[in-house]
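Let's practice the habit of predicting before peeking. Look at the sequence and jot down your guess about where helices and strands might fall. Then scroll down.
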Amino acid sequence: MANVYIQGVSGGETTTPTGEEGIELDDGSTSTWIKIKNLIGRKLRETSGPTTLSMGAVADGEFLKRDGSNIIGGAGGGGDMLSTLVDTEVSVTTTATLTIGKMHVCSGTSADYTVTLPAASGNAGKFVGVRGATALTKKITIDGNASELVNGVASMDIQAGYSVILMCDGTSWYTIAQRSQIGAWLTLNGTGTIAILASQNVSSVTDNSTGRYTINFITAFPDAHYSAQIGGTNSSSNKSIASNTTTSCQINFYETGVGYVDVNPATALFVR
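Done guessing? Here is the structure:
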């Protein structure tokens, strides 16, 4: 039989095990042996010692790892500290308690809901990930267990396109990575018959009157507490927002001594 490599050690078959599945390998020395005999439910003998390790249960997709005198299955394969978060995501559609070491994808269109972090005690150095699915139209609140805090406050909110990874220090949870999606933006020709030149998450613009435009969003914000940045070609214009809701926001351009003025291009960026 051809050489077999185990962790870089080459061995050739020296005997054929009798009545057992597997092979017995010699790594080239007279004192060190590697035995593999029907690993499922049997034993694995180390090359040094030798110590005989019992085989435990190993589920599909798991890696082998040593646990005391046993070989068991487990997540991850010795990757970086966040490696378990790349495993299959946990789908969440309603109120739930999050699972240590997993990324959760939250979806839903019927109502806001809250997901609760695991108790901090005993979980220092561990991670939980949460993201909002693209089709999510409601607000997701990430809450600490009981009175435990998240970034020093009681809770935090996410929406569609947002993702966050939280780390536990044994008493509270803290954000170590976060991606916030731009809620909406546009570039507008606000003169004459108005026209959207480019945009994201904007369904239409209403021309209210000179220098006043209502931006209508495709996907609603979870609340109206978003930030707006407005720009235009009139350097002396005063720019403001009004009547902002979860689904729309009015932007205004006012020039001192002149009044409201149409602008081309007018720009607006909405972030939460």
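How did you do? The radius of gyration is 30 Å.
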